[in-house]
Specification:
The chain is mainly alpha-helical. The chain has three helices and no strands. It has one domain. It is 63% helix and 0% strand. The radius of gyration is 18 Å and the shape is elongated. The mean pLDDT is 87.
């Protein structure tokens, strides 16, 4: 599946239009579980949402770490040039 720029917002969306990087491939796939009246389906949707949140938190931490590393490298280059 193509990656979403904001997976939680895309996969739990109620609106029709998808504006993220997946182009609609992942749009609202969890919404049908979360809105279901069947308890098993609702529990499954909540479990998948929890997993998605954990994965997104890990990805966010990784991206933050990469940004910090790039800034440190840029500062080192500026010190060498100065």
């Amino acid at each position: 599946m193509p990656g979403c720029s904001n997976p939680i917002q895309c996969q739990t969306a109620k609106r029709e239009l998808c504006t993220c990087a997946c182009g609609g491939a992942n749009h609202s796939i969890l919404r049908k579980y979360l809105d279901s009246l069947i308890p098993e389906e609702k529990a499954l949707g909540e479990e998948r949402l929890k997993e998605l949140r954990e994965a997104q938190a890990t990805l966010k931490a990784q991206k933050r770490r990469e940004r910090r590393q790039r800034r440190v490298k840029a500062k080192k280059i500026q010190k060498v040039e100065a």
